[in-house]
Amino acid sequence: NIVQNKFIEKLESIFFSGKPVRVLCLKARQMGISTIIEAIIYAFTSRMKGINSFVIADDLEGANYIFEMQKMYQEYLDKHLKPRIKHSNEKKLAFSGLNSQILIDTADNPNIGRKFTIQFAHLSECSRFTRSLPEILSGLGHAVPNSMGTMIFLETTANGYEEFYDLWMTAMNGKSDWIPLFYAWHELPEYSLPLENGQLYPIDNVKFVTPLEKENFLIDEKVLKEKYNLTDEQLNWRRWDLVNNCSGDINKFNEDNPSCWEDAFSSI
What we know:
Strand 4 and strand 5 (100-106) form a beta hairpin. It is elongated and about 65 Å long. Helix 2 crosses helix 3. The protein contains nine helices and eight strands. The chain has helices at 2-15, 33-45, 60-76, 133-141, 163-172, 211-228, 232-244, 250-256, 261-264; strands at residues 21-27, 52-57, 85-88, 92-95, 100-106, 120-124, 151-156, 179-183. It starts with a helix and ends with a helix.
C-alpha cells in the first residue's frame, strides 16, 4: 500500500547511504508496517548465507501471528525462487544450504539475542513489552554489529509516556542514531467512509465532559482538514472509528490513530 511504499523508499535511502539501519517506527493501527518489515527480513534471510534474524513480539499471540506471515511468504513465493526449508516450527524458520534462520520469540525471554550474532531484528509493538525495553535492547543491540547492511526495527503504536517515548524523543532531538519514522492514519487512503445524506457521522456518543470540549472537537476537525488536506470522507471515517472502535474516547483514538506524533502520546 501507499504507506508501505513510503517506508521502503525511506529504508532504501538509509540502507544505500552505507549506514546501519536503526529505525523507530511510530504509526497508526493496521498500516501494514509489520507486514512489510517481515517481508524485508524474509527476503534477506532466505537469500543470504549465515544470517540470523530475530523477530520479537509483545506476547505469544503476536509471535504466532508474525510466524504465520513468514510461512505465507515461503508458501506463496514463486517456485523457482523458493528456498528449501531445513527446519520449521513456531520458534524458527531455517533455510537449507544457507545456514540462515529467522527466530521468533516474545519479549518475556530474558536471554534474547545473547547467543547469536544477529543481522536483522524486528521488535513488534515494543511499547507494550512486559520487560524493560532498554534491557532487551542492551542484549539484542550488542548482538547486531554496527555495520552497513544490518537492520533493527522498533515498530509500535503508542502506549503513553513510557520507554519507547524516551527513545523516540531522543531520536527526534537528534541525540541518537535511531531514525524516527511516523505514519498518520490519514496517509492510508482506505481510512475513508462515504457520508450518508451528505452528513458527517454523528458524535452524540463521543465522551465530552463539557460543551466546550465538543466545541473544541469541531474546531480541531476544521484545523485537521485544512492542515492535512483531508476530505469529508476521511473526517467521516475518523468520527466513525472514534465512536465505534474507541468507545467515544478521543484520547484512545489519538493513541491508536494519531494525526501527528504528538497526538500519539497525548493519551496521558
